[in-house]
Every structure is written in structure tokens, then in C-alpha cells.
Specification:
The chain has 455 residues and is mainly β. The chain contains four helices and 35 strands. The chain has helices spanning 57-61, 167-170, 217-220, 271-274, and strands at residues 3-4, 17-23, 32-37, 43-47, 52-54, 67-73, 82-87, 100-105, 108-111, 127-133, 142-151, 153-157, 163-165, 175-184, 192-198, 203-207, 213-215, 229-235, 244-249, 255-261, 264-267, 279-285, 294-299, 305-310, 313-317, 329-335, 344-349, 358-361, 368-374, 386-391, 394-399, 414-419, 426-430, 436-440, 447-450. Strands 10, 11, 12, 13, 14, 15, 16 and 17 form an eight-stranded antiparallel beta sheet that branches. A four-stranded antiparallel beta sheet has the order 1-28-27-26, with no helix packed on it. A four-stranded antiparallel beta sheet has the order 2-3-4-5. It is globular and about 55 Å long. It starts with a strand and ends in a 5-residue tail after the last strand.
């Protein structure tokens, strides 16, 4: 499946890396792979026409801290995403160095947590993942932080523009072994949040429609009490129009939670997928543009695994150069930064030893594709938006990723492979604030950048 193109990474030091997010660091509409460096510099790898170069700059590089998780979202509604970086210098509980919340203004990046009025608010707990969520559909995002051994946090700006932690008021400040997060209209028409945990039940926060939540994981079959969650991804695994969740559990049984009836999940992972591994990141994406997503399990110290749906069954398939039998996988993300209509896969390594990044291309073929990039009313990526595409008698669906699976966040673009089909009947977008828009017969082999209609 994959071909190694790490030679395109012009800046690729051998170091400890963790999470990866896809962010417009330069503010020019061009995305970059933002890589968290653990005791080393963070990087922002941007395509320059012939390769990837680091454009992070000294502020974002922040090489004195130990970054593991990263996500982006427009918290202030100015049309440009802020970048939240989790720094974790201890395994659990309190830590020495606070997280960063970088906001771009006056021509440079500033850490909001470094401002005097917010120093006491800064997260000093060992976090594992961070995701952005527009819980009220206002076009402004908060950052939800999955802490380990300390209360979870939800950072937002209040009506006065002040940074606050809303988790206590919303009843979301649980203390557990927080690991990974998933955001989107999963069971409701609003922004729900799934949190996979270690040494305890998972959480599913269903949005009531007013920005408040009910935690219902046990009642819908997602608690998974005996396992230790890591990577998580969402897809319609059987084409029935309902969201399913694939969850990697650390050295435990991996899950493919299928919605066999609306609102209730049951594990249907085939034996090969369920096989325990040292899993870290899980990614669902159409790497070969055949019109059907594959599922990638990125492992640390063990070969990676790739699954595809063949004859109604999810089966292990050839992964090619991305096998990485000796790779120390810690994070990964997908995006099409070079604009060729094929997804690139960037994998980070580290934790137990230094290793460089790896970059992989999917197979070159003649398959058609279409990409949709929804924007918020202010022009930022509309993370959490739902995008449907109907072609050749079937409907594909994607959620614009808010993060983070485990430490990571994918590109804020819905990527659809079309196989041999060169015609699309329609694309429909529903934004977190409820607006919808339909594109009739959109052109294929292009990216459609779409602003929301007025409500």
C-alpha cells in the first residue's frame, strides 16, 4: 500500500517526537504537519513545491519543553486557529511545565497561559490528548484536555473574552487515566465527545443540544471497563449510515464498536483486528482512493497493521513500506499537503529512543477523488462539521477532525476517494451551528472550500 517518501522531509532530525496535528501555521491557507517534540524542538513541516521544510520558528519550536499532544481550533473567532500543546514531564498527576495555548496576533505567536491573569488557570496536570469542540455551535471552539490522574479541563473564552475552564460547570471534570478523544455529531446532531481512558471506563458525553452533556458510555456499550484505551477513529464501517468507532487498546483486545441499532454499540472486531498490540495512533482514511476507508494501527516497537473491508469483512492487507517492524511509533496524521489528491501519512517516533519521522505516500493510480474544506463563519476550519458525498448509488460520510484520537489531529478536510467514478451527484455539509449546504454535481479531482450560508 505505502511507499516511503521520507526523502522529501528536508528537516528531519533524529529526536523524540509524539503527537502530530495538521495546522495552518503561516496563516496563508497552506497547512503543515505540526509535530510535538519531547525535549526537542516542535516542527511545522510545510510543502514548498518540492519537499517539506520546517516553518515553526523559535516561539512554536519551544524546544525547552516536553510536548506530546497537539490540536488546533479557533477559540476567539478571529478566523485563525490557536494551537494547544500538551507538555507532559511526568507520567501522571502534577507536572512542572504548563501547557501552551498559542494565539497569533501582532505578527507573532503568544502563549495565553503565560499572561499573568491566566497563570493560575494553566494546566499543570499530566495530559495525554487535546481536542477542540464547538459545543454550542457558535463558531468558537474550546480545548478539551484529557488529563491523567487529575481533572479533565475544557478551556473556552467567556462572554468577556476571558479564558476560563468550563469543565467543572458542565460536570466534565472527571479524574481518571485520560488517554484519547474524539469529537463530532456521533449520536446527536451536535458536537458529542468520546474519551477513551486507562484503568477505568471510557466516557461518552452526548450533547443535549444546548452545549451541556450527559455522560452515557455505559448505557450505549462504549465503557470498555477492562481495557486501556489508546488511539481511536470514527467511520461508517459497514455502510449503514451510522457512525462506528474503532478503538485501539494498549496490549488488550482492540475494538470495532458497530452501531447495530441506532444509539447502541457492540464490539464486532474480527480476530485479526482484535489481536492485542502496543497500539498508539489509529487512523481511518481512504489511502488508495478506491471509495472505501482503510484502518491503520500504528504501533510502538511492533509492526504497524492496515485493515481494509473485503467481502463484508475487515481483513489485514499489505501495508508496504509503512510496516516499520522496528519503528517506535508515537503519533501520526494524514493530509494532502502537496495537492496531488492522494493522502500523505506522517508517522512520529520516540518515547524509548530517538528516531526520525517517516513520510509515506499511498499507491499511485487513476482513481478519482474529491475534497471538501468547510469554513466557520469567520473563515477558520470548521472542525466537527459533517460532510456527506453521494455517488454511484452510495453515500460516504466524514467528520472534519477536531482531534485527537491519541495525541494527534488530522487535516480539517473531508477527503473522498471515488474509485473509477468521475461523477458525484451531491455533497452535503452540516456545520456545528446547524447550517446546511448542498453542492450539486461538484467537480471531482479538486478541493472545494465552502463557507456556511446564513442561518
Amino acid at each position: 500500500m505505502f511507499t516511503d517518501r521520507s526523502d522529501l522531509l528536508r528537516d528531519n532530525p533524529t529526536q523524540l517526537n509524539y503527537g502530530v496535528a495538521v495546522v495552518d501555521v503561516l496563516g496563508n491557507g497552506q497547512f503543515a504537519f505540526f509535530v510535538a517534540g519531547f525535549g526537542f524542538a516542535n516542527q511545522a513541516l510545510c510543502w514548498d513545491g518540492s519537499g517539506y521544510r520546517d516553518v515553526a520558528g523559535p516561539v512554536l519550536a519551544d524546544e525547552t519543553r516536553r510536548a506530546i499532544g497537539v490540536a488546533a481550533g479557533d477559540i476567539d473567532g478571529d478566523g485563525r486557529e490557536e494551537i494547544y500543546i500538551l507538555n507532559t514531564d511526568t507520567f501522571a498527576g502534577p507536572k512542572h511545565f504548563a501547557d501552551r495555548l498559542f494565539d497569533f496576533h501582532d505578527g507573532t505567536w503568544h502563549d495565553l497561559f503565560a499572561q499573568p491573569q491566566y497563570r493560575s488557570l494553566a494546566n499543570l496536570a499530566a495530559g495525554r490528548s487535546v481536542a477542540c469542540i464547538d459545543r454550542s455551535g457558535q463558531g468558537r471552539y474550546g480545548f478539551f484536555v484529557a488529563n491523567y490522574g487529575r481533572p479533565m479541563r475544557l478551556y473556552e473564552l467567556d462572554s468577556d473574552g476571558q479564558l476560563v475552564d468550563m469543565a467543572p460547570e458542565l460536570g466534565m471534570n472527571f479524574t481518571t487515566g485520560g488517554r484519547s478523544l474524539l469529537v463530532g455529531p456521533i449520536l446527536s446532531n451536535y458536537q458529542d465527545l468520546f474519551a477513551a481512558n486507562e484503568h477505568g471506563s471510557n466516557f461518552f458525553f452526548r450533547n443535549r443540544g444546548n452545549g451541556h452533556f450527559d455522560e452515557i458510555a455505559q448505557s450505549i456499550g462504549l465503557a470498555d471497563d477492562e481495557e486501556n484505551g489508546r488511539g481511536v477513529a470514527i467511520l461508517d464501517a459497514d455502510g449503514d449510515g451510522l457512525w462506528d468507532i474503532v478503538l485501539g487498546n494498549w496490549e488488550g483486545r482492540n475494538r470495532l464498536f458497530m452501531q447495530e441499532t441506532p444509539g447502541y454499540f457492540r464490539d464486532r472486531a474480527p480476530l485479526g483486528m482484535a489481536l492485542p498490540t502496543t497500539v498508539r495512533t489509529v487512523i481511518a482514511a481512504d489511502f488508495d482512493n478506491d471509495g472505501y476507508e482503510e484502518i491503520l494501527f500504528n504501533n510502538i516497537g511492533e509492526p504497524n497493521r492496515l485493515f481494509a473491508r473485503r467481502k463484508e469483512t475487515w481483513s489485514l492487507v499489505e501495508i508496504g513500506d509503512a510496516l516499520e517492524p522496528e519503528g517506535l511509533g508515537t503519533g501520526g496524521a494524514v493530509a494532502d499537503l502537496d495537492g496531488d489528491g492522494r493522502l500523505e501519512l506522517l508517522l512520529a517516533h520516540g518515547e524509548s529512543n530517538v528516531q526520525p519521522l517517516s513520510l509515506y505516500h499511498g499507491p499511485a493510480n487513476a482513481n478519482a477523488w474529491l475534497r471538501v474544506r468547510p469554513l466557520t463563519p469567520s473563515g477558520a476550519p470548521a472542525r466537527g462539521a459533517l460532510v456527506l458525498l453521494h455517488a454511484a448509488g452510495r453515500t460516504q460520510r466524514r467528520i472534519i477532525d477536531g482531534g485527537s484520537g491519541y495525541l494527534c489531529q488530522m487535516e480539517p478536510v473531508a477527503h473522498f476517494g471515488l474509485g473509477s467514478h468521475e461523477t458525484v451527484e451531491w455533497v452535503r455539509i452540516r456545520w456545528p451551528h446547524g447550517a446546511t449546504l448542498t453542492l450539486d454535481h461538484p467537480a471531482v479531482r479538486t478541493t472545494h472550500i465552502v463557507s456556511p450560508p446564513p442561518l
